[in-house]
Design a protein that fits this description.
The protein is α/β, with parallel strands linked by helices. The protein has two domains: about 120 residues, Fructose-1,6-Bisphosphatase, Chain A, domain 1 (2-Layer Sandwich), CATH 3.30.540; about 110 residues, D-Maltodextrin-Binding Protein, domain 2. Strands 1-2-3-4-5 form a five-stranded mixed β-sheet, with helices on both faces. Strands 7-6-8-12-10 form a five-stranded mixed β-sheet, with helices on both faces. Helix 1 packs antiparallel against helix 2. The chain is globular, with a radius of gyration of 17 Å. Keywords: Magnesium, Metal-binding. InterPro entries: CysQ/Inositol_MonoPase, Inositol_monophosphatase-like. GO terms for molecular function: 3'(2'),5'-bisphosphate nucleotidase activity; metal ion binding.
């Protein structure tokens, strides 16, 4: 019996995560080589498995050369073999594997593995959200917190929580470790498609920072901004961003 798309996404993310842990723990690679080896190993597994299991679907991966073929497809798998390569190479836990299926541009199915934590979060198995904290905790980059996030956190009296990869930050909201993930520093479709699918399935607010929907499988795969947050904070965060003065 063949797997459903959701089962396939979860299995792909799980196995890719296990491969990445094996590569990292083998002790044969320097820190400089580790990220590249992990990216290539996970990517090769994912693209071969998807092409075998879903040969008629399109495919977009951070680690493979993009082509226009996917643009004519209704169903497109969007993957990030290692989201947070630096964190992966440093032996941290805040990195992820993203496997998503966009259908007509909508992030419909997603699985995000957090291999170092032994977790896979799935769009088809939403869990109850933990109780949200007030004031909210806001996730920001370890190195470059965006001005909009800093301003919103200040306006809400919120606490800043620094974390690595986009997937780890998005899943921290799903897991109840924070309430808001606001990103304005620019990303690509593979950075957010799977996390958005999982977050939406858990009842979180997901959108661009102007409130418009996130649309995938575009010719230009750059996505400037993103908001994933608890539903009760969505409207207020969007209003605060809208009211911010333009950057000098």
């Amino acid at each position: 019996m063949s797997m459903t798309d959701a089962e396939l996404a979860a299995q792909l993310a799980t196995v890719a995560g296990q491969l990445l842990l094996q590569v990292r723990d083998c002790g044969l690679l320097s820190l400089k080589s580790l990220g590249k080896a992990g990216d290539q190993t996970a990517n090769q597994f994912l693209i071969h498995a998807i092409r075998e299991q879903r040969p008629d679907d399109g495919l977009l991966s951070e680690e493979s050369k993009d082509t226009n073929e996917r643009l004519g497809k209704s169903r497109v798998w969007i993957i990030d073999p290692v989201d947070g390569t630096r964190e992966y190479g440093e032996g941290r836990t805040d990195w992820a594997v993203h496997v998503a299926l966009a259908i007509d541009g909508v992030p419909s199915i997603g699985a995000v593995a957090l291999p170092a934590l032994g977790l896979v979060l799935r769009s088809d198995q939403p869990a109850l959200l933990p109780v949200a904290m007030h004031p909210p905790r806001m996730l920001v980059s370890r190195s470059r917190p965006p001005r909009e996030a800093l301003a919103v956190a200040e306006a809400l009296g919120g606490e800043l929580v620094a974390m690595g990869s986009a997937g780890a930050k998005a899943m921290a909201v799903v897991r109840g470790e924070a309430e808001i993930y606001l990103h304005t520093g620019g990303q690509y479709e593979w950075d957010s498609c799977a996390p958005v699918a999982v977050a939406a399935a858990h009842g979180l607010h997901v959108s661009r920072i102007d409130g418009s929907p996130l649309v995938y499988n575009q010719r230009n795969v750059y996505l400037p901004d993103l908001l994933i947050c608890r539903a009760e904070w969505g409207e207020q965060v969007l209003r605060l961003v809208r009211e911010m003065p333009a950057a000098a």
